[in-house]
Amino acid sequence: MIPVSLTDAHFSTPEERLGHARHWRARHESLKANWELLGNKDQQLLKDMNRWSQDIGDMLAFINDTLIPRSFDAICQDDFHALREMLGPSG
Question: Which letter, b or e, does each residue of 44-79 get, where b requires 16 or more Cβ atoms within 10 Å of its Cβ?
Fold first, then answer.
């Protein structure tokens, strides 16, 4: 995962991160109601969504606390220099 974000992603505060967790929980609950109709891949996706709803707050807090470019222009600046530096020598 490459920790970049755009200004409209809205995950700077716990309240904003909670919104993302609620999104994944709602999708999980919607599919869970009919899990027996899901194929194997979709059942795995259902399990993943449950995990995402629990872990998304920590993942987004980590990205928020990392010094990264925050706008599209900043990410693209100098031929993606800041992004390439985050990726290291192979980037």
Answer: ebbeebbebbeebbeebeebbeeebbeeeeebeeee
pTM: 0.64
pLDDT at 46: 94
| 58's tokens | 């920590």
Chain segment 32-50, per-residue pLDDT in tens: 999 999 999 999 999 999 9
Q: Collect all residues with Cβ–Cβ distance below 8 Å to 6 and sequence separation of at least 6.
A: 70, 71, 72, 75
C-beta separation of 80 from 87 below 8 A: no
- 55, 91 Cβ separation under 8 angstroms: no
Position of tokens 């920790």? 3
